[in-house]
Structure formats: structure tokens, C-alpha cells
């Protein structure tokens, strides 16, 4: 099973993991590492390294981060590049992404497949109510017109 480390500014990580667990139950091999304002980058780096070390080696690790280019992303990237096991970092994480890959981790063969599926889920999880209603109305109109 691919391990997941969620990290981000403030309480993003614990909030995201907590939300997924509230809806879908406890998640094995998933750790939240928060970066509150009172924590420095050295402490965050140590916490992320400790998280990687605490997880079983083998299937790989994926970091889910909040913001591309932020300190959590940069530190996770440095750690990922130093790993001997498959490892990657995804920025811009959201609940739809996390939920989908967390629930399907046993069926995902590689870190690369995991990342691809996560990115697809993230895009699919971002939607506009107004656009969705307009598409539904257009479909209903087409059906009424016999198209």
C-alpha cells in the first residue's frame, strides 16, 4: 500500500486528513504533518522526515501538499528526491483527490499511477454550480427537442 503524508500551512494537513477520516473512516499509512505559524522550517523538515521513517518501506510514499512552491512543498520535494523507495509530491491537494486515492490505494500499482489518479480526481472535484446547472438544463432541453 502506498503511504500518504499530508502537509501544508496552518492546520491544513490535520484538517484534510480529519475530514477524509470523518467521511470514510481511519486511513492506514496516512499521516498529517501541520506547519503552524510557530513552527520553523527546520522543525517541519524534522517532522516530515520522522513521518517518512515511521511508515513501512516498499510500496512508496506520496506527499500531498497545499501550495506549489510553499515551504511544505519544497521540504517534501527535497525529502522525496532523497528517498530510495518510489516517492512523489503533489501540490494543490483537495479532499476529492485525497478521498479517491486513499480508498483505492490497494488497487493502485505504482506511485506514478497514484499521482495520475490523484490529479484526475482533483480536477474532477473542482466544479461550478452555475456551470453544472447550465449543462443539466442544456441536456434536458436537448431531450425535450428530441435530440
From TrEMBL:
<keyword id="KW-0808">Transferase</keyword>
<dbReference type="InterPro" id="IPR004701">
    <property type="entry name" value="PTS_EIIA_man-typ"/>
</dbReference>
<keyword id="KW-0813">Transport</keyword>
<dbReference type="InterPro" id="IPR036662">
    <property type="entry name" value="PTS_EIIA_man-typ_sf"/>
</dbReference>
<dbReference type="Pfam" id="PF03610">
    <property type="entry name" value="EIIA-man"/>
</dbReference>
<keyword id="KW-0762">Sugar transport</keyword>
<keyword id="KW-0963">Cytoplasm</keyword>
<dbReference type="InterPro" id="IPR051471">
    <property type="entry name" value="Bacterial_PTS_sugar_comp"/>
</dbReference>
<dbReference type="InterPro" id="IPR033887">
    <property type="entry name" value="PTS_IIA_man"/>
</dbReference>
<feature type="domain" description="PTS EIIA type-4">
    <location>
        <begin position="1"/>
        <end position="126"/>
    </location>
</feature>
<protein>
    <recommendedName>
        <fullName>PTS EIIA type-4 domain-containing protein</fullName>
    </recommendedName>
</protein>
<keyword id="KW-0598">Phosphotransferase system</keyword>
<keyword id="KW-0418">Kinase</keyword>
Amino acid at each position: 500500500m502506498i503511504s500518504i503524508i499530508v502537509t501544508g500551512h496552518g492546520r491544513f494537513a490535520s484538517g484534510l486528513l480529519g475530514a477524509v477520516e470523518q467521511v470514510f473512516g481511519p486511513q492506514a499509512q496516512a499521516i498529517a504533518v501541520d506547519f503552524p505559524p510557530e513552527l520553523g522550517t527546520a522543525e517541519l523538515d524534522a517532522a516530515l522526515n520522522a513521518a517518512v521513517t515511521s511508515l513501512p518501506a516498499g510500496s512508496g510514499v506520496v506527499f500531498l501538499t497545499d501550495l506549489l512552491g510553499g515551504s511544505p512543498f519544497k521540504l517534501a520535494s527535497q525529502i522525496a528526491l532523497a528517498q530510495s523507495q518510489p516517492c512523489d509530491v503533489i501540490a494543490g491537494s483537495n479532499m476529492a483527490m485525497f478521498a479517491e486515492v486513499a480508498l483505492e490505494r490497494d488497487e493502485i500499482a505504482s506511485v506514478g499511477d497514484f499521482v495520475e489518479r490523484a490529479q484526475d480526481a482533483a480536477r474532477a472535484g473542482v466544479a461550478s454550480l452555475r456551470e453544472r446547472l447550465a449543462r443539466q438544463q442544456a441536456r434536458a432541453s436537448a431531450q425535450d427537442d428530441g435530440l
